[in-house]
Amino acid sequence: MFVFMVDKKLLEYLEGFLTDKRKQTFQKVLAERTRHFTVVLEDIYQPHNASAVVRTCDIFGVQDLHVIENRYINRVSKYVTKGAQKWITTKRYKTDDDNTKICLNDLKTAGYQIIATSPYADANLLQDFKINKKTAFVFGAEATGISDTVKEHADGFLKIPMVGFTESFNISVAAAIILQDVTTRLKSSDINWMLSKDEKEQLYLQWIKETIKNVTKIEERFYQQLEDE
Questions:
Q1: How far is the C-alpha of 180 from the C-alpha of 186, rounded, in Å?
Q2: pTM value?
Q3: Mind listing the pLDDT tens digit for each residue in 181-204?
């Protein structure tokens, strides 16, 4: 209870460093955020692609991004993300020999179905995909696609309809098309897709800290004031 009260006081204290317009923008964006859908990137090695997906998640209100690093380190370009990485919650899996399996197990434990994006003939078409379940969309490496581990543990497969000679989209384009479609349908549905009050407050505090320069020193001053009271 004490920690909760301190966080509340810290939030009120830090809010004093923001303009009213900034606070209103944060609240407006939080109202559109969701964890009903999440994105998984498996061994994406081109910084441009990873960065574009980060930016896409922010644009369409998908709060969480899961990054699997089995063979490659996932890097982002700040020139591409345009700062979007500050507003997205990224969890990296890079400490084990089978990071993919650990990530998928974590997501399933959290109640997500695993949907692998793939041009397979037996994959469901995007327009037929049902949005009612919490879903983690998995995007595989640029050259090879999703791994055998993902194929084995996936609850389903999804593909975007294509009528040309090219067999697949660039990963960043595919992510944008899929997220635009499913989030648009989600927000016009009666599904409870919004963040909880506690989630919004936690993110609000986090975003404020991302905004304020020298925030560590400001926090230290706040806690010192508490001790002196």
A1: 10
A2: 0.90
A3: 999 999 999 999 999 999 999 999
